[in-house]
Amino acid sequence: MSAAAHTIDSIRTGLMAKKFTAQELAIEYIAYAQAENPKTNAYLRFSPERALATALEVDKKIAAGEDPGVLAGVPIAVKDVILTRGLRTTCGSRLLANYVAPYDATAVIRLEQAGGVILGKTNCDEFAMGSSNENSAFGPVRNPVALDRVPGGSSGGSAAVVAQGTAVLALGSDTGGSIRQPASFCGITGVTPTYGRVSRYGLTAFASSLDHIGPFGKSVRDAATLLQVIAGRDEMDATSAFAPVPDYVSALDGNIRGLKIGLPREFFDGLASETGDLITRAVDVLKSLGCEIRDIKLPHTPYAIACYYVIATAEASSNLARFDGVRYTSRAASANTLTDMYRVTRGEGFGAECKRRIMLGTYVLSAGYYDAYYLKAQKVRALVARDYAQAFEQVDAIVGPVSPFPAFKLGEKVDDPVAMYLSDIYTITGSLAGIPCMSVPCGATADGLPVGLQISTRHFNETVMFRVADAYQQASN
Ligand code: GLN
User: Fold this and answer.
1) Which residues pair with 264 in a beta bridge?
2) How far is it, in rounded angstroms, from Cα 314 to Cα 9?
3) Catalytic pick from 178, 240, 317, 423?
4) CA of 14: how far to CAs of 1, 114, 239, in Å?
5) Does residue 190's CB lie within 6 angstroms of at least one atom of ligand 1?
6) Is 124 near ligand 1, meaning CB less than 6 Å away?
7) CA dihedral defined by 463, 109, 34, 409, rounded to 10 degrees?
8) Does the beta carbon of 128 sit less than 6 angstroms from any atom of ligand 1?
9) Whether 79 is catalytic
């Protein structure tokens, strides 16, 4: 089996049958990833020593007849906004180019405890702000499916490595769509769990009330397995939920007969034809599996983008204040006074998109504008959440597109931030509501560009979301 073709199951089978050791697999994957990476720029750096140390532990456990963990030996990549102790964590920013994380994110600790092998850190938009991965200080990522196109963003590197086969799984982060949209663009599965399902401890904050860590995998089964490992209450994050984590994978029996699936009118009106056709075909598959399809309404959808870009920038302007040249970051050498030092450090360090958001966020939080913008946006957010709550009184899951269009060309939207923001139109409502949402591949356009189907469910009801996604994936193959 070539490195690129492995799944969690094939690795477990191979390890137990002693076809290869975890160390051999790690070496093979790192060599393969290093050779392939120049095509996409998806990995920013590799962590071979750490990978081999974890793999050695897995091999020792297997030799001793102990349980090596559900992710034993599985090569995993981690988005570079997630802290990894002793390894550089740059957040795609020049400011943090040399920042070495002093501790591990909880999600990282948990996946390594389960035997997962971290191969390296993946490229992303600076501080996870973007929809194309073109806002990285370390160069854009190319979509492995079509190298002249973007992989989506902001978790573009994590989606690309899974699509490219240079990791089996990856961790990303999603604030307004940054897992689902790149998963859709790269033709893989990506999951944004319920807000609070996965600890944010060790995730560099962008917009704290919207930030999530979540998994990428080739299949629903692989992504669900990774989520199960990283989910659950963590004392280090006060917003992480106490809700018990069910066994997602054993619930995947392929039977979704009788489930009620809602199609939001607002998501289908005016949907570009090729994407729309593929989504419609996916809905037909769900119908053939015995689901009852219903039209639903999410009436506040038209206000979601404006609402998100007020709340997310407000929170970002506050969160990014900590990058001041005193802690964490590099410091401007040329400044003489303290104020100058802040100004020059931040002026030189942040890219254009971060600066735009800091200005916008500071503005909407300032005296006199707070009520008009920030408070108003909070009220709209409550209405968007209520739309979902009412819809879930009638249906078990909601499906629709992830993005209005497939992967676009590199450079196509960089000069038009508003056009870029519009790519989030279908992902942002779920983010504002804090419900679980995912993208599962549902075919490709005539040009061979992947399209993703979005599935969402009630808070903490990831099990139903995975059942729908897995049954669809099995049936559509
Ligand atoms: N594209 C959205 C933004 O730029 C979402 C980013 C994200 O989810 N991190 O804010």
Assistant:
1) 296
2) 43
3) 178
4) 10, 17, 39
5) no
6) no
7) 50
8) yes
9) yes
C-alpha 135 to ligand 1 mean position (Å)? 11
* Ligand 1 atom nearest to 129, measured from its CA: 4
Does 312 sit in the ligand 1 pocket, CB within 6 Å? yes
CA nearest ligand 1 atom 10, residue: 129
How far is ligand 1, taken at its centre, from the CA of residue 176, in Å? 5
* 37's tokens: 């990476």
**CA of 424, closest atom in ligand 1:** 1
Ligand 1 atom closest to the Cα of residue 210 is 8
DSSP strands (E only) in 277-434 = 292-296, 397-401
Q: Is 311 helix (H, G, I), strand (E, B) or coil?
A: helix
State the burial class of residue 330 (Cβ atoms within 10 Å of its Cβ: 0-12, 13-18, 19+): middle
Residue written as token pair 């102790």: 85
> Which DSSP symbol is given to 463?
H
Q: Distances in Å between the alpha carbon of 129 and those of 71, 91, 178, 390, 450?
A: 30, 10, 9, 31, 23
Compute the chain's Rg from CA coordinates: 21
Mean pLDDT by 10 residues, the chain (477 residues): 83 97 98 98 98 98 97 98 98 96 98 98 98 98 98 98 98 98 98 98 98 98 98 98 97 97 93 90 98 98 97 98 89 88 94 97 94 96 98 98 96 91 93 98 97 98 98 93
Q: Exposed, middle or buried, 328 (CB in 10 Å: 0-12/13-18/19+)?
A: middle
Which structure tokens are listed for 423? 């790519």
